[in-house]
């Protein structure tokens, strides 16, 4: 059966919406290929800014710092998220609704508030600001995200599957590793893939809790732009759009292969 | 032959959050090698009973024994009872082969010696699924998934196999094939099967013995023949599809026969094995298929004969259900073979003669 054609106004507004969303990205990507020193002047194609990026020590160092923070953040937030989701979906305990409500709060709380609050906390307990404090801060705002994604997957799981595993002779531990985790894998992968860019992107919270020697990529770019914008930033922006996209696509494919 | 008990429930009670217990002081013995059906409407506690045996639920009080050993404190993974779940609960991330091998693999260190691949093959052959080892559950039909669920439990050779409405999700024709298959498999392996269903025909056609449950208790336990033709309580009689329950007072009793009069003034003869006191109120069950419905001018020598008018007629395929209004207001539901009914062609308000023999009626104990 052929679906009826969408009305013209619907097509137009959809195109307009996508244009609004993606036009800035298009501009960014296009101008990363032009040799002009000034932004927004088209002078032909070049690899120049990508080469400059390749040799730019401060940006590479910043990327390394960002990854040093993002990878542990994703691992910790995904593990804690899985366990929290498990508790919320399966266990019955007093104050469960409160815990669930408090979990959503950081999602709607302004990053500014979270950043200031974390800074005050770290200063109060005299924790030196640096990579460690940034990881703690990123874990804090990633947990609600990973928990919610994994919880959504868990609520669609048939609880009889775990019952069946126990019935067939698997104890709680074996059931968890051989049935629950494999079935949750798509959710766990999705949660990790969402948490990764959250950590890599974050500027506001990181800005408050960063210390000397822990300048992440967003902080570095911000510093560079204050001194005048180099088209190298366009090139970097292009890479930062395309690479996560590839990772996400790959992740989705992997997740779909299971189940 | 002395039959050894396979599953024993002794005064088992299970209460959920609500006040009325789901299973109430239930005692039941299922013998080794028996095909036992637990029949009842939804909410009667039959599935809870099964889950108590499987260990998915713990009883509040009472004892549960498997092969003579009390197990009510054991977790499900230590019990030699395996469940075939209503919606199969096959592991979607594992192949047929790995689903069936699951139990053997997780238990191998404890008590499942032997060759896993060979036993998986045997189990799959038993349920006639050889050749589908590498498929995933979502690539199988409902009937095939059902067989995998069966093989997955059978391969562990449990003391008892617990089946929770296993055919509920299948269409009618497949259900009948699977009923025969289940009986064949049960006979072949000689294992105890405890089968929960709400379908009377399924219980009647498959079980060696069966129990009808209602409100967490067993209403009646016996062979299918017993329960079908000699229901003990009003509930069992109604649940087994005996629509005619007539209440009356005993006015006369001779050897093996009692005479009742109903509030609408009918005099009914009924066979009785035990003495019933004159003057007592009793309930009489007359199954719809034992009642003859004849044109009013035909003669017939039944023990109980009444004139009545056809109220309603429903074609049921093999049978046609006719509701007949008797003088005084009582109604009788009668099942006539459709072929016969078509010869008479009863229309609404036709005058008919209905009748049955005294030994076709059956007195309820309560």
Structure characterization notes:
- The complex is a heterodimer of chains A (259) and B (366).
- With 259 residues, chain A is mainly alpha-helical.
- Chain A has a single domain (57-255), classed as MetI-like (MetI-like fold), CATH 1.10.3720.
- Chain A has helices spanning 8-31, 48-55, 57-90, 96-108, 111-124, 131-155, 159-167, 172-201, 204-209, 217-226, 232-257.
- In chain A, α4 crosses α6.
- Chain A is globular, with a radius of gyration of 22 Å.
- The model of chain A has no long low-confidence stretch (mean pLDDT 86).
- Chain B has 366 residues and is α+β, with helices and mostly antiparallel strands.
- Helix content of chain B is 24%, strand content 34%.
- Chain B has nine helices and 20 strands.
- Chain B has helices at residues 46-54, 96-107, 116-126, 142-154, 172-189, 200-206, 224-229, 234-239, 338-344, and strands at residues 5-14, 23-31, 35-39, 61-66, 69-70, 81-84, 160-164, 192-197, 209-214, 217-222, 244-254, 257-261, 267-271, 281-286, 292-295, 304-315, 319-325, 331-337, 351-356, 361-363.
- Chain B has a six-stranded mixed sheet with strand order 6-7-8-3-9-10, with helices on both faces. In chain B, strands 13-12-11-14-20 form a five-stranded antiparallel sheet. Chain B has a five-stranded antiparallel sheet with strand order 15-19-16-17-18.
- The longest helix of chain B is centred in the middle third of the chain and has 18 residues, at 172-189.
- The two termini of chain B are 34 Å apart.
- The model of chain B has no long low-confidence stretch (mean pLDDT 90).
- Classes of the chains: A mainly alpha (259), B alpha+beta (366).
- Chains A and B meet through α7 and α8 of A and α2 of B.
Keywords for this entry:
heterodimer, A: 259 residues, mainly alpha, MetI-like fold, 11 helices, 77% helix, globular, B: 366 residues, alpha+beta, elongated
